[in-house]
Q: What sequence folds into this?
């Protein structure tokens, strides 16, 4: 039987380098990045939620539940992943993706799940161009309690520090025309790409 996989879209960042606001609402080739992300990942998962702080109604037009960080103070993406684990606890795994990555691959879940199915990894994160991308990963929801303790009791903030406590694997994608895990951080990143 196939594992049940939820997805949390990480939209909780402050976007200071972009000048503030929600990076996912910025457009590439006339389409908001968050809509590009949803179009890519929604067919790959069983349920999708958006992790964002502040007024949730700004996401109403997208039609997905919005969940806020369960840990106060904008402590980073681990809080969003915890929010996803808690909201999607009925699922075996969650996929996490940020809402500023317009070129995500359509085989993302299939390839990230491979080491889990092979029994070689507990957490699996994406890698490209010689860099790990820990915000793009598959996480077992059974680790929710451990992650909450790390955030609340131990003040762990760095993703790689927490991931290193568990059996993890990386899956490499080729960088061809564009890095599939390119994230738009600056206004100049929003130029037309032809894709």
A:
């Amino acid at each position: 039987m196939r594992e049940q996989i939820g997805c949390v879209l990480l939209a909780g960042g402050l976007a200071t380098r972009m000048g503030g606001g929600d990076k996912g609402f910025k457009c590439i080739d006339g389409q908001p990045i968050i809509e590009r992300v949803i179009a890519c990942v929604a067919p790959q998962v069983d349920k999708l939620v958006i992790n964002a702080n502040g007024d949730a109604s700004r996401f109403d037009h997208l039609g997905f539940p919005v969940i806020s960080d369960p840990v106060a103070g904008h402590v980073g993406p681990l809080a969003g992943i915890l929010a996803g684990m808690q909201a999607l606890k009925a699922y075996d795994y969650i996929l996490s993706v940020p809402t500023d990555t317009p070129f995500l691959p359509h085989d993302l879940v299939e390839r990230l799940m491979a080491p889990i199915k092979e029994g070689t990894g507990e957490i699996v994160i994406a890698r490209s161009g010689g860099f790990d991308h820990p915000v793009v990963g598959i996480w077992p929801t059974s680790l929710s309690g451990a992650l909450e303790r790390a955030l609340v009791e131990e003040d762990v903030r760095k993703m790689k520090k927490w991931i290193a406590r568990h059996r993890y694997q990386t899956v490499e994608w080729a960088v061809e025309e564009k890095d599939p895990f390119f994230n738009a951080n600056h206004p100049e990143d929003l130029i037309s790409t032809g894709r």
Observations:
- Confidence is low (pLDDT under 50) at residues 15-19.
